[in-house]
Amino acid sequence: MVEMKADAERMAQQHPAFADWAFEDGHLLVGGIPVGQLAQRLGQTPFYAYDREKITARVKALRAALPKAVRLHYAIKANPMPAVVQHLSGLVDGFDIASANELDVALDAGMSDAHISFAGPAKTDAELKRAIAGGIVVELESLSEMDRCAKAGDSLGMTPRVAVRVNPDFKLRGSGMHMGGGPSQFGVDAEMVPEMLSRLAGLGLAFEGFHIFGGSQNLSAEAVAVAEDQIADLAIRLADHALTPVRHLNIGGGFGIPYTPKDKAFDLPLVGARLHETVEKLGRALPGTAVIVELGRYIVGEAGVYVCKVIDRKISRGQVYLVTDGGLHHQLAATGNFGQGIRRNYPVAIASHYGEEPVETVNVVGCLCTPIDLLADKISVPRADVGDLVAIFQSGAYGRTASPSRFLSHPEAKEALV
Ligand SMILES: *Cc1c(COP(=O)(O)O)cnc(C)c1O
């Protein structure tokens, strides 16, 4: 037992992400099952395994920190596995979708159409029709999309429910991926919104509210709190121009998760406390407006691992290479090629010698014929041989479906919700 504790502490020291995961007899456990057994059950490596309890716990933590009045939405594109979405349908208040196929997943999971909204550029007429027929809220990204949406509603004999996605006139600081502030394909420039609102009602559209999303993977809770307050102020300003009440305001999210040992975990209590003030202000200015926070990565990102198998172990000019059956075709982001400026290792461990003392420095690579297929650069690990399993942590969001799975025509990764 004492030895076990020392092993756990050693893992936590290597990377805070490891501290949250249990292991037994040198095997990482997902949902209480050793990853080796999971590999047998799934009949293959590589695979993604998502821990149901961790997802549930994260939503609970969010509920505890955020004001009660805030509605929590899950952004499906972070992880659209139907079982994951189904699990979340009983935990969150709504879903945000980014394609008509995500609409199918959202509705199949049992979420009420009233609490699903569809954002994203380049919605086709066919997608707009599917969304309107599904009774969900269309987040308008441009004035011309508004016109097409009205036409689609006419052709169906239905009144489309719409919200206006606003491109704010300020930038969110500290965000990994900016999605507003300057010129953008996302949303309607804040200064054009009054004109849009004046035309909207005449087109036979039902106005629901505003959606203002500042960016993704923000680790600065202070920056998020400031942005949320600025977003509230902007919505209050724009609401003056709406002909009907603002029924909801989606203030985005973008809460980040730590990937490197230096990344500090997102300060959720701070954002929660500050949001209480923002929500109160909104309640005074816009009584009856529901406030929505939408999150993808923060809800599922830390609940998943990607597991692959060592196929070859070789030494090249003094460096050890663990050559695996995994790679960037399944886990692009872990190789630093998913919009990151600089490549940094994700937390990576030998899942079949988990908790053991590191004895050597290795590179973990994938099976693709490109030097960018590097899963871990010079990490310190226990001895691993052919047949051992490698786990990449923080893989619950933007993993399988955010990777070029057809590249090199290898088999796809499987997924399990455990
Ligand atoms: C991608 C996206 C999200 C989810 O972002 P996370 O960083 O995963 O929380 C939320 N809203 C919109 C509009 C998005 O495009």
From TrEMBL:
UniProt cross-references to CDD domains, sorted A to Z: PLPDE_III_Btrk_like
GO MF term set: diaminopimelate decarboxylase activity
Listed Gene3D superfamilies: Alanine racemase, Lyase, Ornithine Decarboxylase, Chain A, domain 1
Positions carrying N6-(pyridoxal phosphate)lysine: K77
PROSITE patterns per record: ODR_DC_2_2
Pfam family name, one: Orn_Arg_deC_N
Keywords assigned by UniProt, alphabetized: Pyridoxal phosphate
List of catalytic residues: C369
Cofactor(s), by name: pyridoxal 5'-phosphate
GO biological process, one term: lysine biosynthetic process via diaminopimelate
Keyword Zinc tagged: no
UniProt domain Orn/DAP/Arg decarboxylase 2 N-terminal: residue ranges: 53-301
Record carries keyword Nucleotide-binding: no
Domain (Orn/DAP/Arg decarboxylase 2 C-terminal): residue spans on this chain: 48-396
Family label: Belongs to the Orn/Lys/Arg decarboxylase class-II family.
Protein name: Pyridoxal-dependent decarboxylase, exosortase A system-associated
